[in-house]
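[stage:ingest] chain + small molecule (iron/sulfur cluster)
[stage:ingest] validated
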Amino acid sequence: MGIDNKDTSYDSLYKAFEERIELLAKLPKMDEDNSIEKVIKENGFSRRDFMQWAGMVTAMLSLPSTFTPLMAEAVKVADRLPIIWLHMAECTGCSESLLRSANPSIDSLIFDYISLEYHETLMAASGWQAEQNLENAMHKYKGRYILMVEGGIPTGNEGSFLTIGGHGKKGKDIAIDAANDAAAIFAIGTCSSFGGVQAAAPNPTGAVPLSKVTNKTVINVPGCPPSEKNIVGTLLHYLLYGTLPALDVFNRPKWAYRLRIHDLCERRGHFDAGEFVQQFGDEGAKDGYCLYKVGCKGPYTFNNCSKQKFNQGTSWPVQTGFGCMGCSEPDFWDTMGTVNEPLKDRLYHTAFGGLGADATADKIGIGILTVTAIGIVAHAAIAVIKPPKEGE
Ligand code: SF4
Ligand code: SF4
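[stage:predict] done
[stage:export] tokens:
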């Protein structure tokens, strides 16, 4: 059962969520001895903490606070959705960031609780047994499992740059097979969503995004790594709605990626006022000025980092004094330039006929309206100038 995303009547949405949770609750529990209450308690969180977290996720998914108890109920049945998590060409950073924090957040505990039927980093099995486990899980939960894929898919030399397991099966073929029978497919991280660093020029392994090797819809959850909130939120959204979230032009869930870093940044007032850090450690840096001139790519990047933050909501890169690198944008390794330098006219050239962003920033007294206009076209500019990759 899937719920129409566009249904704006909260009463009918609430009822539909209730019915879906009821339906999921009838499916067998993966571990009878486990419950979310137990997991939360064992990790030192109170029920109050849990309900606060449920309220935060409810707001994050743009639902009214009256849905909070329902969100808490939804988490209880999250272990009914079997998940297969594949590793392709990647650094495992997405898994690590979600699962290995010294003080796990409730988001990462939710991930412990769900039914990870196959995850190479976490499971005890190895070798032949691991391969068998994957086949068994795909067979047992055919058409029901959620597929999460971390990493780009090497396709060069017929996919032979990535082989996995004793039978030397190609990563590309494993991903295709697993995608065929999945109920929903999430590309976790920028490598899986857009190719990532593997696909950066000259892309020797011919790495491509997951969406290039399957005809099925892939929900991209990019970031290097993506925040745990965006991963868990995407999962809970699917759990509640049973259907795909509203997606942007790059198939990213709009609830998480519809706004630019720049639009939500606490330093935005300084950008508008023309107050910039000129070099790290200067007086502007101490005063929390805008980081655009020391390389912040926030004006070109769509993500919710400044709102949801990292490390249990304590901070995010710009808050610490370092600019956004644009990690949730396609091909950011190739298109976002040197980390500590502004893009100058490289991205803006097409949109402004040669007027660079630096020039614009230097003349910042010209007013907020102009700056806002610059921002609005930035997204389009990236799409316009992005050079086609080999094979695209
Ligand atoms: S350029 Fe970066 S630091 Fe400056 S306001 Fe935009 S996002 Fe914030
Ligand atoms: S601030 Fe920018 S570089 Fe950092 S995680 Fe967010 S999108 Fe990625």
